[in-house]
Design brief:
This protein has 375 residues and is of the alpha+beta class. The protein has helices spanning 11-20, 37-43, 47-50, 65-76, 122-177, 183-211, 224-241, 262-280, 312-315, 335-345, 369-374, and strands at 22-27, 32-35, 81-88, 94-105, 111-120, 220-223, 245-250, 257-260, 287-295, 298-305, 349-352, 360-366. The longest helix has 56 residues, at 122-177. Bound molecules: adenosine-5'-diphosphate.
Length: 375
Amino acid sequence: MNKVLNKDDLSGLFELVDSSGALLETSANGTILYVNEKFCKMMGYSENEFLGKNPRMMKSGIHSEEFFKNLWETILSGQVWHDEICNKKKDGSLIWLDTYIGPIFDENRKVIRFVLVRFDVTHQHEIKQLKSDQEAQLASSSKMAALGEMAAGIAHEINSPLSVILGKATNLLKQLKSPTIDFEKFNIDLEKIQTTTLRIARVIEGLRRFSRSGDNDSLLPVSVSGIIEDAMALCSEKFRNHSIDLKINLSKDFSVQVNGRFTQLAQVLLNLLNNAYDAIETLPEKWVEISVNCEGDFAVIRVTDSGYGIPPEVEKKLMQSFFTTKIAGKGTGLGLSISKGIIANHHGKFYYNNQSKRTQFVIELPLIKDQLAKE
Ligand code: ADP
């Protein structure tokens, strides 16, 4: 007969765990065999209500199938599973539990029991959730502020092609009324209407993509030049209106992709372009250059403006939330700190390059591996 390692065999250890946390023990097929007082108190059930049941009775329904698949794979492979899990108490309220589940084996390495130890972390979880909600809200307001700064330019970006379309359509109508139609000219005007409409569509598409949340999107292959073009489409008019030369310098036909969230990466670029605009607006020499290079395993995007760098006392605080040198109502002081967070979530680096003669910010994003192999 198999020797069962029950709580008496491991009495010292069990006593320790029993007195420090909420403890539950099941048979190999998940039937609850033991539950301590702390566990009952935590979940609101009596010992009798637990015994003979399955821990599924506490399921909250908020975890994915994948989550439980991983749990089972871990414990069935003989390892201890550890994570925060949300359960439902008897009164229906939810509770977050820092949970350890480990298997107990007999001499033949056959699982005979599972032991589950847990600690109530609902309060810490709520604080974490609140913090991440607040961060998401700040990121969203900073994005909308960036968009607001571009609003006049965007309106112009749509308005001027609309006047072109109106002019060309008026010409076409006039030609239709004339006794002889110059088909070549007619065709040129129609083509101009077509390309101008596409230009407006591009701006609207950029706006639509930029305005959506996108925070919960998974990382998908995105084209680096596509992100730059979208960000530029939203602000090129504003730069043109203020005689700022906006240049793009791609190392080659830059079709490489990175794993990313399009909206968030466009947000980082737009913020850098807004900052560059604010910094050089009144300088005699006004230009901004975006360059992209493949360097090792990274796509490196540099945004350089014609300013002569940032003083060390400002540089020290650049990435701090709410740090701004702009007048009230103009800056939120969130752009760079949020950008740093976004790029870190993309497993990349975001920094101010104090070695550059002109003001330069750098974004490094890991290239997709397959592409590296192909190059
Ligand atoms: P905000 O733009 O709202 O001030 P940011 O976090 O984007 O917030 O920027 C913080 C500060 O960094 C700016 O107020 C400015 O002092 C400085 N800064 C950012 N980009 C530049 C730049 N291109 N040239 C000079 N200073 C800059």
